Sequence to fold (446 residues):
Amino acid sequence: MQTAFLFDLDGTLVDSVYQHVMAWTEALVTEGIELSIWRVHRKIGMSGGLLTNMLLRETAGMNLDPARIERVQRLHAKAYVKHAKDIKPLPGARELLAALTESKIPWAIATSSRMETARPVLETLGIDFARVALVTRDEVEHAKPDPDLFVAAANKLGVAMEHAFVVGDAVWDMLAARRARCLGVGLLSGGYGQEELERAGAYRVYEDPADLLLHLDEVGGRR
Amino acid sequence: MQTAFLFDLDGTLVDSVYQHVMAWTEALVTEGIELSIWRVHRKIGMSGGLLTNMLLRETAGMNLDPARIERVQRLHAKAYVKHAKDIKPLPGARELLAALTESKIPWAIATSSRMETARPVLETLGIDFARVALVTRDEVEHAKPDPDLFVAAANKLGVAMEHAFVVGDAVWDMLAARRARCLGVGLLSGGYGQEELERAGAYRVYEDPADLLLHLDEVGGRR
Fold:
């Protein structure tokens, strides 16, 4: 059975979750919406529209009109640029991707971000945009926790979902993985707790890409 | 049996954990120390010296000399001021403290921060500094996860440790509570997962101060 790896981006390959948390919080405050920051953190990784809608429905019992959701997303993108300049790859991220390539194990990146937001951090990973299988929010109708991004990524690789691992830091990655019939591998590097990821269905949980690389044989990464 | 409540401050009464995370990260980067941000998050609530030392020992296997630890702490305090201006009380924090006061249930605040750092956020809570039992890092030899802060807070109130609940958002609050022979009540508002707090010994876990107020009868807050 040939394994393939479908990676989330933020919090999984690059250390950018906390910057996204602060940028979403700023965007919501600018729109006059006050939410506790931990609630924003727990929604990172979802599509931006869904994140905004869910936060408001859960905490204020209100639905936003589409124009306001669009505005919050634009404010987030603007605030994020300010925080994004110091974002770095997570320990072992480049080495993990290089090891998979060298072992001829197919891998792809599937992110709920739009290309505009994802490009600068993808560049820190030294990604060759012409060669790497990459799916962003722009290419699918629904982002996570819907499975579309991972299904599209597997299609780009030409691998079957049932042979693929999804690697992500968020509960939403694990839920999307299960809907896509992939196995989910959780990483703690986005700030979720181990048990949260396990309860969302993670097959295994590691600290970060470096720790996953060290244990790659546990998840079919035969080298 | 008369109950008393000993509160942590950051992430428990005020929404300031993520600002501390970013400030510690900036301070460490300025000192040339690169650490993943989630690792910093998981140490918030400890004494600053211990936090710096533990992060480095765990990840780089190195001990810092005291002068450098002192410098990182000063850099954190400086960076935190920049992030602190928008910090707000967590939902229900003022109401919870007012309800306890009204019911003549003793309560105190015990924080690993120094007064210099804690004062601005205490002010957002409308604390009367002349009347409230308050213990900061300045008054004890060891901060959390040592029990000194909570022991000092119970002493100020004149209550027995065995009758007190410690309310906190961090694993370090729960560990310090157990060492002090208090029961720990965990809050999710600092960004830890429910299971992490439970595994550290939390007697009960609530979302935030508003949720604790709603369930106060479960933890002896008879009104």
About this structure: The beta strands of chain A are 4-7, 107-110, 133-135, 164-168, 183-187, 202-206. Chain A is about 45% helix and 10% strand. Chain A touches chain B at residues 11, 15, 17-18, 21-22, 25, 29, 34, 36-38, 41, 86, 88, 90-91, 188-196, 199, 208 (CB under 8 Å). Residues 141 and 148 of chain A are 7 Å apart (CA to CA).
